[in-house]
């Protein structure tokens, strides 16, 4: 089994390397500005006329102006100037002026010159020049960004149109005193206005897709994290959300440069910081999945990754200004840090897969391999690759890794859902089984209690009878013996009352309710007519009040509800003196039927009110049922989904209020 799992990991690694290499190779060959460079004549000029003769004017093809440039380091050349000291370069060969300065500083000035041969109207697209520039075409200033003198940085994409008739000279003056990139690092494009607009639109759509899908994943992860933040493992969702957010901010730079939004150096500070933060999130996510919390490797990786976030922020804000010569070194350090981190994460994931043998680990392993290969291709084709329509190798690698993390999160949550469903199904089965067992146990208990009460009834009756016979027939009993017999009689009566309580409890507990639609108005009228004569005989007035003429319908058991009314009304009779009144009222309040039983009796003390519905509670000295009446009343009302409450004061009567849910009536 272990060999099979290791074989799976090897197959995934090899397959990922092959597929990723093919994908990045296709990007290099089919989405690379350097593979569509313009033709150069013997004198070093670009032959746009030959290009148009082949593809006709207005062609949708684009020419990338990569080669044929004359570069004047440290000089600002104007149209018509003829100066020596130029170097023949291609755009992308140098990322800054550092290679032309003895101190390695990227700061300084430089001029780019290119000759074009063509005939017609053209549109030119120059991606972000660092950090200020002025563009001349055919001796005329066409467009600029920022200011060279006095220096004021502004980085944006330049799009302008001009006509060429014969030979035209393109002159681009640049200056940089604020960024670690400088000059023209990305090849310009020239073609028809339709072709350039199509290029820009496709590029914006691609980066818009990256931005918004990353934000969607970040939002999804945030929702999951917020819903499970009490779980220790939920930090994985949190860091995935931050990774998606940081990546979306990092890759939104095309929109900033195209719209010409000027943030100065802040845009690159934010971009670099987000890149470092994204790598930190990758490290934290892998650590949470593969390493023990607060273990030494976990703390070391967290410290190193977090340190580079601070280093990136400090360098972007401070070092680039005060230590410009350190910029090329920092670039190398940053690259090797990313590569080494990727290797460590791959090894950690391989070790984790060796323990858990899960498909989720293989998905993350594949994502980390793609990210690592994107760094390799970035290094191999540095200065020889720039995407036309899509993204850089590293951007693709990071995005694919985010997708792999999202797949892992989706699979993990799918497993949780399946496990919950499985547990719920088993829980329902377990509840049913326990309910059946409990019902059987309760039934057995009721049978035991009923049998126990029945078996004791006869001997208790015999004891009572023979005690009475001894008292009547034995006239020679002394006073002490009579006291003993009296104690036996009283204790026997107490036992009979206890047995009566058991019988009443068993009867209520064993009788299931039979719910059916009931009209409370009819129920109360029938109860009133059937019990009014008995109550009036006791010298108490009994009155019924029903508000409204419409039926008040509920779902209930009429037999049990009548038992409730009997308990409440005849309890009121016991506590109401002759000449007193008992009122039975019914009304409808919102979605409830309200029954009130009110008397003018002696009332209930304030300290007894909270306990009157408790089982076996009574304040009567000769209570036969030992306080079961109101307990049974509350039990029945609760079965019906209702509530009951009492309001009283000593000497001022009592009001019992019952609320029962009504049912809708068909009209």
The major β-sheet equals:
9 strands, mixed
Mean pLDDT: 82
Q: Sum up the overall morphology in one term.
A: elongated
Distance between the termini: 71 Å
Q: Please count the beta strands (DSSP E, at least 2 residues each).
A: 16
From the alpha carbons, calculate the radius of gyration and give it in angstroms. Answer: 46 Å
> What share of the residues does DSSP label as strand, in percent?
15-25%
- Class inferred from helices and paired strands: alpha+beta
Return the string of H and E elements: HEHEEEEEEEEHHHHHHHHHEHEEHEEHEE
Helix amount, in percent?
Answer: 40-55%
Q: What ranges have pLDDT less than 50 throughout 5 or more consecutive residues?
A: 622-626
Can you count the helices? 14
Task: Tell me about this structure.
The chain contains 14 helices and 16 strands. With 667 residues, the protein is an alpha+beta fold. The longest helix is centred in the middle third of the chain and has 81 residues, at 393-473. Strands 1, 2, 3, 4, 5, 6, 7, 8 and 9 form a nine-stranded mixed sheet that branches. A five-stranded mixed sheet has the order 11-13-14-16-15, with helices on one face. The chain has helices at residues 2-30, 48-55, 193-227, 235-250, 253-259, 266-290, 296-322, 327-356, 359-380, 393-473, 479-510, 520-537, 558-575, 629-639; strands at 46-47, 63-64, 69-73, 87-89, 108-126, 132-137, 140-145, 158-176, 189-191, 516-519, 541-546, 553-556, 581-589, 592-599, 643-648, 654-661. Mean pLDDT is 82; it is low at 622-626.
């Amino acid at each position: 089994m272990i060999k099979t799992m290791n074989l799976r990991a090897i197959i995934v690694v090899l397959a990922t390397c092959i597929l990723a290499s093919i994908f990045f190779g296709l990007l290099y060959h089919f989405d690379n500005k350097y593979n569509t460079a313009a033709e150069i004549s013997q004198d070093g000029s670009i032959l746009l006329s030959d290009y148009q003769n082949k593809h006709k004017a207005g062609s949708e093809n684009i020419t990338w102006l990569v080669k044929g440039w004359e570069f004047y380091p440290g000089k600002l050349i104007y149209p018509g100037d003829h100066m020596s000291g130029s170097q023949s370069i291609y755009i992308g060969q140098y990322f800054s002026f550092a290679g032309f300065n003895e101190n390695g500083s990227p700061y300084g000035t430089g001029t780019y010159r290119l000759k074009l041969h063509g005939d017609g109207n053209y549109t030119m697209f120059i991606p972000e020049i660092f950090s200020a520039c002025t563009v001349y075409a055919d001796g005329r200033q066409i467009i600029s960004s920022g200011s060279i003198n006095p220096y004021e940085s502004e980085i944006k994409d330049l799009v302008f149109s001009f006509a060429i008739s014969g030979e035209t000279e393109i002159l681009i003056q640049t200056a940089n005193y604020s960024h670690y990139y400088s000059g023209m690092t990305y090849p310009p494009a020239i073609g028809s206005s339709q072709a350039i607009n199509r290029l820009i639109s496709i590029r914006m759509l691609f980066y818009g897709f990256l931005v918004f899908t990353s934000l969607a994943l970040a939002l999804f992860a945030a929702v999951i994290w917020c819903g499970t933040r009490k779980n220790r493992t939920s930090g994985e969702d949190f860091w995935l959300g931050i990774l998606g957010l940081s990546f979306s901010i990092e890759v939104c730079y095309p929109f900033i440069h195209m719209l010409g939004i000027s943030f100065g150096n802040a845009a690159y500070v934010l971009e670099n910081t987000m890149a470092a933060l994204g790598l930190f999130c990758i490290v934290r996510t892998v650590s949470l999945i593969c390493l023990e919390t607060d273990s030494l490797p976990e703390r070391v990786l967290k410290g190193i990754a977090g340190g580079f976030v601070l280093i990136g922020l400090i360098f972007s804000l401070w070092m680039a200004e005060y230590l410009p010569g350190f910029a090329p070194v920092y670039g190398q350090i940053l690259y090797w840090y990313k590569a080494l981190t990727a290797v460590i994460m791959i090894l950690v994931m391989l070790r984790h897969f060796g323990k858990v043998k899960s498909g989720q680990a293989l998905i993350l392993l594949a994502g980390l391999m793609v990210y690592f290969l994107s760094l390799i291709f970035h290094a191999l084709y540095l200065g020889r690759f720039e995407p036309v329509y899509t993204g850089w190798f590293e951007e693709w690698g990071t995005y694919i890794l985010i997708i792999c993390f999202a797949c892992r999160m989706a699979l993990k949550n799918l497993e949780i859902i399946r496990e919950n469903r499985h547990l719920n199904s088993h829980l329902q089965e377990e509840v049913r089984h326990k309910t059946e067992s409990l019902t059987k146990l309760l039934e057995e208990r009721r049978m035991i209690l009923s049998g126990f009460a029945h078996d004791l009834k006869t001997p208790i009756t015999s004891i009572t009878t023979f005690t009475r016979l001894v008292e009547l027939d034995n006239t020679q009993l002394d006073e002490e013996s009579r006291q003993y017999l009296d104690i036996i009689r009283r204790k026997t009566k107490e036992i009979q009352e206890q047995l009566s309580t058991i019988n009443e409890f068993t009867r209520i507990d064993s009788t299931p309710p039979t719910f059916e639609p009931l009209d409370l108005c009819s129920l109360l009228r029938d109860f009133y007519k059937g019990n009014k004569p008995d109550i009036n005989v006791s010298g108490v007035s009994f009155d019924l009040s029903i508000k409204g003429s419409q039926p008040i319908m509920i779902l209930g058991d009429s037999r049990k509800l009548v038992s409730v009314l009997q308990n409440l009304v005849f309890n009121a009779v016991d506590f109401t003196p002759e000449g007193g009144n008992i009122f039975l009222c019914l009304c409808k309040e919102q979605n409830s039927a309200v029954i009130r039983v009110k008397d003018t009796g002696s009332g209930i003390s304030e300290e007894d009110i909270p306990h009157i519905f408790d089982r076996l509670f009574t304040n009567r000295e000769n209570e036969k049922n030992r306080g079961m009446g109101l307990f049974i009343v509350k039990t029945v009302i609760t079965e019906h989904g209702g509530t009951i409450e009492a309001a009283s004061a000593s000497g001022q009567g009592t009001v019992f209020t019952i609320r029962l849910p009504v049912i809708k009536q068909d009209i």
